[in-house]
Predict the 3D structure of the following.
Amino acid sequence: MNQKSRVKKRYKKKGKKKKIKKIISYLTVLLVLSVSVYLYFKVTEPGLAREWSEVEVAKIKTVVLPKDDGHHADGIEWWYYNGHLVTESGKEFSFHFTTFLLNNLTTQTVFHSSLTDHQSGYHFTDQTRVGGNISAEFENKFNFRHIYWIMEGGNGSDVLKVANEKFAFDLNLESTLPIVLHGNHGILPLGSFGESYYYSRTRMNISGVLDTGGVKESVKGEAWFDHQWGDFYTDKMSWVWFSIQLENGMDLMLYQISDKYGSPVSYNGSISKNGKTEILNQDDFILVPKKKWVSAKTKKSYPVEWVVKVPQKEIDLVVKSVIKNSEFDAKLTTYLVYWEGAIKVNGSHKGKGFLELNGYDDLENIKTD
């Protein structure tokens, strides 16, 4: 075969290769288009589209109920109630009841409770602790039972029982509003301390029996419920916290978290009404401490009067403690001392609520007017 023939044969082979490559390219494009069309119609089928959407929602870290009414494996968790009670004879009381689940080197369940007599000014407290998670066997709810302490509930239908030498109550609670998710879908930023899951039932109707000094009376009232958990340590934090129920149906949660030196690291809040919630950030509310109360027992001072403002909602409140002596010495169970008590609300709006002041060992320099 001469040189010319060999060249022709070589070009002929190249031509065939080019045709084959073109065919493969066409087939590839056709296959991609076919798969794309198939997936388009398949994904837009109602069932699959809903399934895909649910998967995407599941990727968002959030609170899911009733599952998250139950316990978690995080470092610290608490189920908390405060409430205002009126007896059948017209007497007024307030209470708080908290169960802590502490998961550190060992697991502990801790109970704190207080009752305040608004007539006499007496503030009674009680506390105990027990090893392990005594609600571990329950899912989608909580059921803590230890001697005379009972905290049971889930899905907004709860039972609280406490009994000791000074006071006892047996209360049934029913939520009247949708839950409030704080922060981002129920995830609350705590600045340098991390984050916390946090939701509330801001209005729960109360019915039951109150026993003070052997005198039993039927009571009615309204409670606020909080559930909070995460991997953070309260001994490194201090905070000012308000739960406020206004007479116009509006509910406020305001949280200012500071380090042990009193420097704020996080501001969080929410305002809800008729089942709708708006999240409040640092620029949305103002907390101004006013008068202090000094504990004769611990010598700690607590700002028990405040001005609370939410300018965008034209809210300008004067908040005062009902009973100034509402300190809770919990060194026997959680090694903390904090202030927890009922507040009365006046100013642009009227209402009631609770104030909690924690970590005031190193906050003596807080300025008040």
Summary: The first helix runs from residue 3 to 43.
